[in-house]
Amino acid sequence: MEPRDIEGDLTEILIDEEQIRARLAELCRVIEKDYAGKDLLLVGVLKGAVMVMADLARELVHPITMDWMAVSSYGSGTQSSGVVRILKDLDTDLHGRNVLIVEDIIDSGLTLSWLLANLKSRGPESVEICALLRKPAAARVDIDVKYLGFDIPNQFVVGYGLDFDERYRNLRSVGVLAPHIYA
Ligand code: IMP
Ligand code: MG
Predict the structure, then answer these.
(1) Which residues are registered as beta bridge partners of 13?
(2) Cα gap 103→114, rounded to integer Å
(3) Which residues form a coiled coil (predicted)?
(4) Which of 107, 144, 163, 165 is catalytic?
(5) What is the pLDDT of residue 79?
(6) The domain containing residue 32 runs over which residues?
(7) Is the CB of 143 under 6 A from ligand 1?
(8) Is any atom of ligand 1 closer than 6 Å to the C-beta of 48?
(9) How many whole angstroms from 92 Cα to the centroid of ligand 1?
(10) I need a labelling partner for 156 at 20 to 30 A (CA). Which of 14, 25, 107, 171 fits?
(11) pTM of model > 0.90
(12) Total domain count, the chain
């Protein structure tokens, strides 16, 4: 759906569909160079990364395989605690593999920091991160993101996979959720 279909629920459109498409294409050209001649396993983090995974994978001119993980971060409400539980693990053995974690957004960074350490402990050749969005002002741990789409302000955003209460994932753009929705 388009922002006009949920008029009033957003205060602002931060990044539109075309900007996302163009930026992902740029990232794919770099990824193709970096992994030339190498195998590449994309690991998507459910559910938020579904859209970025689908578009990134299709834009890549490189043979890839895909796998998925679902994790939940213990903590109250919208605050990440860094204590992570695996809800769905990978089906793939990571020994000797080049892993690229595909994420929707890095907020505090706690979830990804845990995931990075977890995947690195499984004997892969390499583990890197690709994230569409990052909120630098919210960072609680330093994360080395090799492929980043956009830095955004420290506001709650929805769309392109990102949800509020499981809604808005199918919005084509990324927008700032209006406060009256979560009040
Ligand atoms: P972190 O551990 O704080 O980095 O948590 C990151 C996770 O929180 C992301 O993968 C999202 O699922 C969720 N998240 C963080 N910020 C937002 C947001 O602005 N909108 C929707 N989900 C968010
Ligand atoms: Mg996520």
Answers:
(1) 175
(2) 13
(3) none
(4) 107
(5) 63
(6) 17-154
(7) no
(8) yes
(9) 25
(10) 25
(11) yes
(12) 1
Q: Which amino acid is at 34?
A: D
Per-residue pLDDT of 48-101, as tens digits, reads: 999 999 999 999 999 999 999 999 876 555 566 778 899 999 999 999 999 999
Residue 76 in any domain: the answer is yes
CA angle 95–56–146, rounded 5-degree value: 60
Q: What is the CA radius of gyration of the chain?
A: 16
Task: Please state the atom number of ligand 1 nearest to the C-alpha of residue 155.
Answer: 19
Q: Is 107 a catalytic residue?
A: yes
Q: Which ligand is nearest to the CA of 80?
A: 1
Q: What is the CATH number of the domain that holds 100?
A: 3.40.50.2020
Amino acid sitting at position 113: S
**Is 116 a member of any domain?**
yes
pLDDT digits (tens, 9 = 90+) for 34-54: 999 999 999 999 999 999 999
In a mutational test of the pocket of ligand 1, which residue from 105, 160, 171 has the highest number of ligand atoms less than 8 Å from its CB?
105
Is 180 a domain residue?
Answer: no
Which among 34, 70, 74, 30 is positioned nearest to 50, based on CA atoms? Answer: 70
Q: Which atom belonging to ligand 1 lies closest to the Cα atom of 164?
A: 21
Q: Give residue for tokens 């695996």.
A: 86
Nearest-CA residue for atom 11 of ligand 1: 105
